[in-house]
Amino acid sequence: MNLILFGPPGAGKGTQAKYLVKKLNGIQISTGDMLRDEIKKDSDIGKKIINDMNDGKFVNDEIVNKLIENAIFDKTKKNRLIFDGYPRSLSQAKNLDFLLNSSNQKIDLIFFLNVNKKTIIKRIEKRKIIEKRTDDDLETILKRYDTYMETTKPVLDFYSKNSNFHVIDGSLEIKEITMKIDSFLNV
Ligand code: AMP
Questions:
Q1: Domain residue limits, the chain
Q2: I want to staple 56 with a disulfide (CB 3.0 to 4.6 A). Which of 50, 122, 143, 154 is the partner?
Q3: If you take atom 11 of ligand 1, which residue's CA is the nearest one?
Q4: Contact 133, 127 (CB under 8 A)
Q5: pTM of the model
């Protein structure tokens, strides 16, 4: 099974992705984590993306798409993909479709975790203290939320026509969200 967790920063995608990894023996494909790893390693990619990441801007598609392509064509990950933070733009969504088709895979379920700006600000301020992410200050959070709203809205329109697209109230407690997701899994 391949799934997409979709929603603004702080919606709880990462938390639910980790749950789904255990439940489905899946692989979490978090572009945010992959990009943070590149920065930690101080790789060539890391050097290119550090400023955009810290400013809450999108990293360019070429870099992100390549990371995703590697994951999709990795045989050990086939039909175990749990996307968290990708796709974030219409061009990424189309690229994902293309790569999945080319590797004889499809998306089985798409969950949109819907949360308002106020809840997100509260959550990210908490996360900042726990995870010490450099892109979690208030100004950057607001920028990331606005960037999300602008560029991911067309992705929402793209997916919302599909019968496997489900909106979940992301302001619920973690366990309640998990239960809602579970109800669509049939496993
Ligand atoms: P996240 O951990 O998903 O909140 O992502 C943290 C940051 O990584 C974002 O603010 C972007 O700078 C970058 N990023 C993560 N995923 C993507 C993506 N699909 N496209 C472009 N930039 C991304």
A1: 3-185
A2: 143
A3: 58
A4: yes
A5: 0.90
**What b/e sequence results for 155-177 when a residue is b if at least 16 CB atoms lie within 10 Å of its CB, and e otherwise?**
bbebbeeeeebbebebbeeeeeb
Q: How many CB atoms lie within 10 A of CB 93?
A: 22
Task: Judge if the beta carbon of residue 59 lies within 6 A of ligand 1.
Answer: yes
pLDDT tens-digit readout, 101-146: 999 999 999 999 999 888 888 888 887 777 777 777 788 888 888 8
Question: Is residue 180 within 6 Å of ligand 1 at its C-beta?
Answer: no
Q: Class of the 3-185 domain?
A: alpha beta
Does the beta carbon of 7 sit less than 6 angstroms from any atom of ligand 1? no
How far apart are the CA of 85 and the centre of ligand 1, in A?
A: 6
Print burial letters for 51-85: b (CB count within 10 Å at least 16), e (below 16).
eebeebebbeeebbbebbbebbeeeebeebbbbbb
